[in-house]
Amino acid sequence: MAYVGIFMAAFTFLLLPKIWQVLKISLWRPYALSRSFRKQGVKGPSYSLFSGSLHEMKRLKMDAAQIVMDTTSNDITPRVLPQYHKWCPLYGETILYWFGTRPVVSISDPDLAKQILSNKFGFYVKPKCSPAIQALTGNGVALVNGGEWARRRRIVNPAFSMDKLKVMVKRMATCTVAMLEAWKDEANAAMDQCKTIEMNGEFRKLTAEIIAYTAFGSSYSQGKEAFEAQVELQHYCAASLLDVLIPGSHYLPTPSNLQLWKLDRRIRNSLRDIIKSRLKPKNLDCNYGDDLLGLIMSASENSDIKEGPKLNMDEIVEECKTFFFAGHETSSNLLTWTVFLLSLHQDWQTRLREEVLKECGLEIPDSDMLARLRLVNMVLLEALRLYCPVVEMFREASKDMKLGNMMIPKDAWVSIPLAKIHRSKEYWGEDANEFNPIRFKNGISKAANHPNAFLAFGIGPRTCVGQNFAMLEAKAVLAMVLQRFCFSLSSEYKHAPVDNLALQPQYGLPIVVKPLLAQNI
Ligand code: HEM
């Protein structure tokens, strides 16, 4: 009898509160929040126990992945953001849905997006990612929040200043020449001097080379090894994005966790070795080199940061991973989609080639030449608008927040679907889905009838730290391609943009390249 009493007492005091907690999170809160949002005029798909809207989203994504679009259509939302394509006609532009038990409010109004992304007090924070995503992207400046973020951003910023980037253009060009030489050899070996090349794969390799070279300079081959493991890791993460997260499951030695831990160890060890080799013999003037790693190590030593210590070894490792992840997928996809658009719009390809030959001749472009490429810049921005590598951004409300006419409760997420905002007719006009680089002739803020309708690099304090790097890299690579080749879309191409952590062509981008005979470079 006594045991039963003890059991009942334990049940009452230990288990009941837990059960109540689970019921509150998985039943009561979704019910109460759905009601409260409905009163504020915000509707959405109904909540399913534990999985929220995840199963529906997964199903819609799987169905969308079967669609092959018309090659000339730039309307990628049904394929890339199928959930909004289905839900918006039913519930309106602002939608409440559920990542498991977590409420997410999707915002498509640039004014509200600006309020979220530019919040002065940092009340909308970056949401905590799954351990797999953290291992992949690095728990660096892109993921941390608050004072920790400010400390890291201050250390990282100077490495991306324009004068430092100018030096890096040479390294970007060196990597590009090697790739283009290989293309030329392959094309010249063909009877008709034409060669079909899968551009997405080529640009991924190239941007990985560039980031490894600009990040690690002389330690480049060691850095490449680490980054190759990171690419492998990406396959595990992309597959698990819409899985329902079971608390604690990342500690279990499942086959995929074991593989993930192994890759993570390999990445860390390689990066630690590189950093250690820079530290000895100890550099007295704290000059660790002019590559990204060296600049960050120097900035960390020299900075007059009051709050908190300078970056330690593990933190530098995380920043290196962040640069690689943030810097190579996005940039390669910008190049991929720009080449795709220029293959379809041969008139623009000719115009850009004329501009490049006028400003750079047949020389390897330097940063001053690149700065004069106005049309190239406009085309890159238009490619970023139509095929933005990051299709959606998320933030978490760190306290109850008033947003427009809505109350966003603490812990709720807000999503900003860039790909949708970028093709809204309300902001971009009737030709929102057309390729029209001229719209950027007076700069980004005047391209649409709302100054914040272009969000490819984010806005506010957490805007992309590598955007100048990315634009210089894209201009340099594109200019060098245009100097040497004309190109057109292969008949094998299937138009199927897909969001695998960045916007990619699902079946690759086969492009027919032909060396320009007049340009013997
Ligand atoms: C076309 C190329 C690129 C695009 C479209 C892009 C896009 C973005 C976007 C949208 C954000 C903001 C994300 C958010 O607020 O949730 C971001 C942040 C960031 N990007 Fe990029 N990015 C590109 C290239 C790069 C490169 C080349 C690097 C570094 C080498 C880089 C490093 C970062 C970092 C570190 C952050 C986090 C900044 C912070 O939170 O303070 N990005 N990027």
TrEMBL record:
Cofactor: heme
Natural source organism: Manihot esculenta
Family annotation (SUPFAM superfamilies): Cytochrome P450
Protein name listed in UniProt: Cytochrome P450
Subcellular location: Membrane
Entry superkingdom: Eukaryota
Entry binding sites for heme: 464
PANTHER family in alphabetical order: CYTOCHROME P450, CYTOCHROME P450 FAMILY MEMBER
Membrane topology of this protein: Single-pass membrane protein
